[in-house]
Description:
This protein is of the alpha/beta class and 180 residues long.
Amino acid sequence: AGEIVAVSGPSGAGKTTFGNIVLGLLPPDAGQVKRGAGLARTAFQKIYQDPAAAFAPAITLRQSLRDLVRLHGLDWQHLEDLLARMRVSLALLERLPRQVSGGELQRIALARVLLMRPALIFADEPTSRLDPLTQQEVMALLVEQARQAGSAVLLVTHDVDIVRCVADRRLLLAQPEQPA
């Protein structure tokens, strides 16, 4: 709980697959994944590299977030506070996901995940679409909020500087050898 574990390795090494197995989105080829007793499925959240995959395309961002808040009995004001810290204008919530930039959508997706206060966040290249300054701000907020809430973070990144700055540990995955 509260630990940031960086998962890195070359393309094709299985970083995303590993995270999806931990989340229960894919079955493992061997072995098993054990989760803490009594944790709901919603206690495991994913921040996608492509944030558009996380939102319904025909629903405004506000409606999507309102549905989440209502369904899980969450605090809308806390969401607004998170969005403000990420410099996301509330006016953007009136738009469809395709009507905002990738960086804006990624920050909204991150706020949505943090609002859930999950036990585990699988962050798959969560800042890849952000400019360097926004990357730093968003990573700092992710780490701060995760530590405050006691959420573990599996962070997939190729950025060695991010690993060095935020990770408590690092898992290095190697490229599987191809049969001759």
